[in-house]
Design goal:
heterodimer, A: mainly beta, B: mainly beta, 7-stranded mixed β-sheet, globular
């Protein structure tokens, strides 16, 4: 069935270092890959997304890369700050016809000051 | 513009009871999806509604059901509650017809079954 694997489950980095979270999906029909950030006690919020016709997308300190052949996509956060500490979820879904997203199990990122 | 609103925020129910959760999407959004969030399991898709029609359903037992009204507000119902149903239930609304655009989440309803 449809599945998204996400690694690592926890990640601790020093402030200013980079963090990388990796996801692998199983459904070849997936064409849209959003990343959500969920701070403690708050709702998940979209931080960046990528579509299958793009290999990489950047937004300031955040970037996402996609390898559709290998069914891998990754989130890169550079120059991490304490406020980046949160749980990050990757997801995969079709690009049309539905908003059914398959989420990874989440990565708890801790940025140590 | 008001965000996605879920009510109630917290619920405590006893095994065997039933519960109804409500989700009011962002004005103009016609799609509402529901997810169950538990520690270690991430967000698991329950079902999706668009213009009052269920478009997709996840792998949950028939005790979980939902509906969407003409004003796009949605409700989900869980009957014969089990301890394992304790979770944060999140709904998300989107403006388009499907995929490729942001899903905006509500704050969730935390359900505790005792």
């Amino acid at each position: 069935g449809e599945n998204v694997e996400q690694h690592p489950s926890t990640l601790s980095v020093q402030e200013g270092d980079s963090a990388v979270i990796k996801c692998t999906y199983s459904d070849s029909a997936s064409n849209y890959f959003p990343w959500y950030k969920q701070e403690l006690g708050k709702r998940p919020q979209l931080i960046i997304d990528i579509r299958s016709n793009v290999g990489e997308k950047k937004d300031q300190r955040i970037a996402v890369t996609l390898n559709k052949t290998a069914k891998h996509f990754s989130l890169h956060i550079t120059e991490t700050q304490p406020e980046d500490s949160a749980v990050y979820f990757c997801a995969a879904g079709p690009s049309s016809g539905t908003y059914k997203y398959i989420f990874g199990t989440g990565t708890r990122l801790k940025v140590l000051a | 513009k008001a965000g996605v609103t879920q009510t109630p925020r917290y619920l405590i129910k006893t095994r065997g009871q039933q519960v109804t959760l409500s989700c009011s999407p962002i004005s103009g959004h016609r799609s509402v999806s529901w997810y169950q969030q538990t520690p270690g399991q991430g967000l698991q898709f329950l079902f999706e509604y668009f213009s009052e029609t269920q478009r997709n359903k996840g792998n949950f037992p028939g005790r979980f059901s939902g509906r969407q009204f003409s004003n796009s507000r949605s409700e989900m119902n869980v009957s014969t509650l089990e301890l394992g149903d304790s979770a944060l239930y999140l709904c998300a609304s989107s403006w388009g017809t499907g995929g490729n655009t942001e899903a905006f989440f509500g704050q969730g309803t935390r359900l505790t079954v005792v």
